[in-house]
Amino acid sequence: MRLMNNYAYANPFLEPVSLDALTVPDPDDGDALAHPVEDPAADIEHQFELTQVQATVGAFLATLEPRDREIVLRVYWLEETQAAVARRFRISGAAISKRMSRIETKGRLALAALRHSVLLQ
Fold first, then answer.
1. Which fold, 44-120?
2. Integer Cα distance of 70 and 119 in angstroms
């Protein structure tokens, strides 16, 4: 497999940006230009909290039975209705509702530490 030259590759979905568009007048020196490029690593606390939330949610999902994990995936991530999930599993809507209640109760207990997380506000 041949590696692409990153300098020759252009994303056809993005418009090219002039380097002049990335500069603004420096407030301290009117003749100079500043490059206000944000450092993605600047907010280490935010990244650390995000990592903790992801690990906690992942650990909770790992405790669920495979069928319950699939229900959570379909209802919360794929945004399917409970009725659609019930049809897929060929069970009643009441059975899905009961499973969802059980999963939500487990989730409230397992994820209680995240309740005050800035990311979930």
1. Arc Repressor Mutant, subunit A (1.10.10)
2. 24
